[in-house]
Design a protein that fits this description.
By secondary structure, this protein is of the alpha/beta class. 36% of the residues lie in helices and 11% in strands. It has helices at 32-42, 73-79, 92-103, 116-119, 124-127, 155-161, 182-205, 215-221, 224-233, 269-278, 283-286, 293-298, 300-311, 316-325, 336-339, 387-395, 399-407; strands at residues 23-26, 46-51, 83-86, 107-110, 135-138, 209-212, 250-254, 261-265, 330-332, 349-352, 360-363. The strands form three sheets. It has a six-stranded parallel β-sheet with strand order 3-2-1-4-5-6, with helices on both faces. It has a three-stranded antiparallel β-sheet with strand order 7-8-9, with helices on one face. A two-stranded antiparallel ribbon has the order 10-11. α1 (32-42) packs across α7 and α7 crosses α8 (215-221). The two termini are 34 Å apart.
């Protein structure tokens, strides 16, 4: 089977997408796993999200009621473009249904704590004989082996334990986390490209694989150069805040507007001369103390003061414009409300119909393929909306079989 060969139904809009025909059975919850499967859906995969009414993985209420309005954006971001099926996996009949769904799936993604899928009789060792082509992805916090395999992980804790919180901020600050669920995004992205690699390998081998991804290790991977420095030199680099280890000056500088800022980076002598001209301080370019990057590092504080004396007299837009005209890389600081809908945001934002109320906007994958376009964002399925259709199309259950499952509360 090729990646383009259909193994099940897919909507017309996604039929030409790279993963059209790939079936993903999604047991993921919270955000890291759902973000991974959302990326796969954006690439055209048919993603069937397994949920239960007793323990939802979305923040919006089951009935899409008004109480979910303020929390709509998280489920909208993670669960759009998917189908939803409700299975009460505490029920033995529901577990057998899940096994049958797994037997026709190309990919399974789960991010439960270590051991949960085994207790549910849905682990790779049990499912692989039923479906040798299955790609099974586990995304626990610390992996399924090692001294912390049983620990519960959260974004903040993972940032702390991986050392990431001591690479942000400046020396003397308390540990500083990267907000916006950093670990969930990084873990989800690592899982996505490993799945794509596994699908490509399956074209050659005809068999799937078991992927044990530790979100902790995904976080560690993002600070690899700092770890390498410690391993080779036996030193710990100081926390630099907005400064660089390579270029000087670099920073965010206060402008005239209320909480208005502009960033700049000087990499070359030409840019340094351009900065001196732009801020009307030609002595910067001729002062022997600043004639090299090393010298500018040594006198960064004084340089910052002289730059700030200029930026605080102008708006961030004007600072950005003047610096760019002088050949200095500079960008004003913007907040989210200034980015959404901006002409320079490109095609990353797309409208999305919600369960209730007006349409919102969501971020698409930040690239486009010329021959196989990514799928447009699809709606957020209501909890269990495709339960019947998925049971019929994926594993061919009859109406009588579905009714029997309903009677024993297997589909709740």
């Amino acid at each position: 089977m090729t990646l383009q060969q259909a193994t099940g139904p897919s909507n017309a809009a996604a039929s030409a997408a790279p993963l059209a025909g790939i079936r993903v059975l999604d047991f993921a919850h919270v955000f890291a796993g759902p973000f991974c499967t959302r990326c796969l859906a954006d690439l055209g995969a048919e993603v069937l999200h397994v949920e239960t009414r007793s323990r939802q993985s979305r923040n919006a209420p089951a009935d899409g009621g008004k109480d979910g309005d303020d929390n709509l954006h998280r489920p909208g971001y993670a669960h759009r473009s998917k189908q939803s099926i409700t299975l009460n996996l505490k029920n033995s009949s529901a577990r057998r249904v899940a096994q049958r769904l797994a037997s026709v799936a190309d990919v399974i993604v789960e991010n439960f704590s270590s051991g949960v899928m085994c207790r549910l009789e849905l682990d790779y060792a049990r499912l692989q004989p039923m479906n040798p082509r299955l790609i099974f992805v586990s995304m626990s916090g610390y992996g399924h082996s090692g001294p912390r395999s049983e620990w519960t992980s959260m974004n903040m804790n993972l940032q702390a334990y991986s050392g990431l919180m001591m690479t942000t901020g400046i020396e003397g600050d308390p540990p500083t986390a990267i907000s916006n669920s950093w670990n969930d995004f990084i873990g989800g992205l690592h899982a996505t490209f490993e799945i794509l690699q596994a699908l490509a390998d399956r074209e050659e081998t005809g068999v799937g694989r078991n992927i044990d991804l530790a979100q902790f290790e995904s976080s560690v991977a993002t600070i690899g150069p700092l770890l390498l420095n410690s391993a080779v030199n036996g030193t710990i680099l100081p926390r630099l805040g907005n400064r660089s280890t390579r270029d000087a000056p670099q920073g965010a500088y206060k402008c005239a507007g209320k909480d208005d800022w502009c960033t700049l980076v000087v990499r070359t002598e030409e840019e340094w001369r351009g900065l001196a001209k732009a801020i009307g301080d030609p002595s910067l370019a001729t002062d022997p103390r600043f004639e090299s990057t090393v010298g500018r590092f040594r006198h960064h504080e004084e340089i910052d003061q002289r730059i700030s004396a200029w930026t605080t007299t102008l708006s961030a837009i004007e600072v950005e414009q003047r610096l760019c005209e002088a050949g200095v890389p500079a960008e004003r600081m913007r907040r989210a409300d200034a980015i959404v809908g901006a002409p320079d945001a490109g095609g990353v934002y797309s409208p999305l119909d919600t369960l209730h109320g007006p349409a919102t906007v969501v971020a698409r994958l930040p690239f486009e393929l010329s021959e196989s376009p990514t799928a447009p964002p699809g709606p957020i399925a209501r909890l269990g909306q495709q339960t019947r259709s998925a049971l019929e199309t994926w594993i061919g259950l009859s109406e009588a079989e579905i009714q029997a499952l309903e009677a024993e509360n297997a589909l709740t």
